[in-house]
Amino acid sequence: MSWIKTNFLWMMYRCGWASKPNQEHVLAIWIKRDGFDEILSKAYTPGTQKQANVSKDDVLVRLQWDPDHTPDGTKEQRRAIQLGLKGEILKKYATEYILKIEDITPFVLSKRPLLTEKKMQHLIVAQERVYPVQDDRTAELIGVDKI
Question: Given a cut of 70, is residue 147 above it in pLDDT?
Protein backbone atom coordinates (compact mmCIF):
# COMPACT_ATOMS: atom_id res chain seq x y z
CA MET A 1 0.00 0.00 0.00
CA SER A 2 1.23 3.50 -0.87
CA TRP A 3 -0.07 6.51 0.99
CA ILE A 4 -1.17 9.94 -0.19
CA LYS A 5 -0.93 12.62 2.49
CA THR A 6 -3.23 15.42 1.36
CA ASN A 7 -2.28 18.01 3.97
CA PHE A 8 1.03 19.88 4.04
CA LEU A 9 1.25 20.51 7.79
CA TRP A 10 0.21 16.96 8.63
CA MET A 11 3.02 15.75 6.37
CA MET A 12 5.48 18.15 8.02
CA TYR A 13 4.45 16.74 11.41
CA ARG A 14 4.86 13.18 10.12
CA CYS A 15 8.32 13.70 8.56
CA GLY A 16 9.57 16.20 11.16
CA TRP A 17 10.06 18.86 8.51
CA ALA A 18 12.23 16.38 6.54
CA SER A 19 14.37 15.52 9.56
CA LYS A 20 13.23 12.00 10.51
CA PRO A 21 15.25 8.99 9.34
CA ASN A 22 14.13 7.74 5.90
CA GLN A 23 11.84 10.77 5.59
CA GLU A 24 14.39 13.38 4.55
CA HIS A 25 12.76 14.13 1.20
CA VAL A 26 9.34 15.66 0.58
CA LEU A 27 7.58 15.43 -2.77
CA ALA A 28 4.61 17.51 -3.87
CA ILE A 29 2.45 15.59 -6.31
CA TRP A 30 -0.20 17.14 -8.53
CA ILE A 31 -2.89 14.75 -9.74
CA LYS A 32 -5.90 15.02 -12.04
CA ARG A 33 -9.11 16.03 -10.32
CA ASP A 34 -11.09 13.19 -11.88
CA GLY A 35 -8.39 10.79 -10.70
CA PHE A 36 -8.61 12.11 -7.15
CA ASP A 37 -12.41 11.88 -7.31
CA GLU A 38 -12.12 8.25 -8.43
CA ILE A 39 -9.72 7.51 -5.57
CA LEU A 40 -12.17 9.06 -3.08
CA SER A 41 -15.08 7.10 -4.59
CA LYS A 42 -13.29 3.86 -3.70
CA ALA A 43 -12.19 4.93 -0.21
CA TYR A 44 -13.33 3.15 2.92
CA THR A 45 -12.75 4.00 6.53
CA PRO A 46 -12.71 0.98 8.84
CA GLY A 47 -16.25 1.96 9.88
CA THR A 48 -17.70 2.28 6.37
CA GLN A 49 -15.93 -0.93 5.35
CA LYS A 50 -17.62 -2.76 8.21
CA GLN A 51 -21.03 -1.21 7.45
CA ALA A 52 -20.74 -2.21 3.79
CA ASN A 53 -19.55 -5.69 4.76
CA VAL A 54 -16.50 -5.34 2.50
CA SER A 55 -13.51 -7.55 3.23
CA LYS A 56 -10.13 -5.95 3.90
CA ASP A 57 -8.71 -7.65 0.80
CA ASP A 58 -11.35 -5.97 -1.39
CA VAL A 59 -10.60 -2.43 -0.16
CA LEU A 60 -8.44 -0.66 -2.76
CA VAL A 61 -8.36 2.67 -0.92
CA ARG A 62 -8.07 2.99 2.87
CA LEU A 63 -9.09 6.41 4.19
CA GLN A 64 -7.86 7.58 7.59
CA TRP A 65 -8.99 10.78 9.26
CA ASP A 66 -6.06 12.08 11.31
CA PRO A 67 -5.70 15.22 13.42
CA ASP A 68 -4.30 18.14 11.49
CA HIS A 69 -1.34 19.89 13.10
CA THR A 70 -0.02 23.40 13.54
CA PRO A 71 3.49 24.10 12.22
CA ASP A 72 5.03 23.20 15.59
CA GLY A 73 3.20 19.85 15.68
CA THR A 74 0.35 20.71 18.05
CA LYS A 75 -2.83 18.77 17.20
CA GLU A 76 -5.73 20.75 15.75
CA GLN A 77 -9.45 19.99 16.06
CA ARG A 78 -9.84 19.81 12.29
CA ARG A 79 -8.99 16.56 10.55
CA ALA A 80 -6.79 15.72 7.57
CA ILE A 81 -7.13 12.64 5.41
CA GLN A 82 -4.56 10.22 4.21
CA LEU A 83 -5.34 7.67 1.56
CA GLY A 84 -3.74 4.25 1.28
CA LEU A 85 -3.84 2.89 -2.28
CA LYS A 86 -3.26 -0.63 -3.56
CA GLY A 87 -4.01 -2.80 -6.55
CA GLU A 88 -5.53 -1.36 -9.71
CA ILE A 89 -6.18 2.11 -8.25
CA LEU A 90 -2.51 2.41 -7.23
CA LYS A 91 -1.49 1.46 -10.75
CA LYS A 92 -3.84 4.09 -12.23
CA TYR A 93 -2.53 6.69 -9.78
CA ALA A 94 1.06 5.99 -10.82
CA THR A 95 0.46 5.74 -14.56
CA GLU A 96 -2.57 7.94 -15.34
CA TYR A 97 -3.37 10.45 -12.59
CA ILE A 98 -0.06 12.15 -11.79
CA LEU A 99 0.44 15.45 -13.58
CA LYS A 100 3.60 16.70 -11.90
CA ILE A 101 6.04 15.71 -9.16
CA GLU A 102 8.20 18.33 -7.46
CA ASP A 103 10.88 17.78 -4.85
CA ILE A 104 10.04 20.47 -2.28
CA THR A 105 12.70 19.34 0.20
CA PRO A 106 14.76 22.56 -0.20
CA PHE A 107 11.64 24.63 0.56
CA VAL A 108 10.83 22.51 3.62
CA LEU A 109 14.41 22.67 4.92
CA SER A 110 14.48 26.45 4.48
CA LYS A 111 11.36 26.79 6.67
CA ARG A 112 12.36 24.41 9.48
CA PRO A 113 14.73 26.91 11.22
CA LEU A 114 11.82 29.32 11.63
CA LEU A 115 10.18 26.78 13.95
CA THR A 116 13.19 26.35 16.19
CA GLU A 117 13.89 30.08 16.26
CA LYS A 118 10.25 30.82 17.19
CA LYS A 119 9.79 32.98 14.09
CA MET A 120 6.52 31.46 12.97
CA GLN A 121 5.20 34.81 11.78
CA HIS A 122 7.70 34.46 8.89
CA LEU A 123 6.64 30.92 8.04
CA ILE A 124 5.15 30.41 4.60
CA VAL A 125 3.31 27.15 3.99
CA ALA A 126 1.17 25.71 1.25
CA GLN A 127 -2.25 27.29 0.86
CA GLU A 128 -4.96 24.72 1.51
CA ARG A 129 -8.71 24.75 1.20
CA VAL A 130 -11.59 22.34 1.71
CA TYR A 131 -11.90 19.92 -1.19
CA PRO A 132 -15.41 20.07 -2.66
CA VAL A 133 -16.68 16.50 -2.89
CA GLN A 134 -19.44 16.69 -5.47
CA ASP A 135 -20.70 13.10 -5.62
CA ASP A 136 -23.37 12.23 -3.02
CA ARG A 137 -22.30 8.58 -2.68
CA THR A 138 -18.63 9.49 -2.23
CA ALA A 139 -19.46 12.18 0.34
CA GLU A 140 -21.47 9.66 2.35
CA LEU A 141 -18.83 6.94 1.99
CA ILE A 142 -16.00 9.10 3.33
CA GLY A 143 -18.08 11.00 5.89
CA VAL A 144 -18.10 14.57 4.60
CA ASP A 145 -20.77 17.08 3.69
CA LYS A 146 -21.29 17.58 -0.02
CA ILE A 147 -20.26 21.07 -1.12
Answer: no
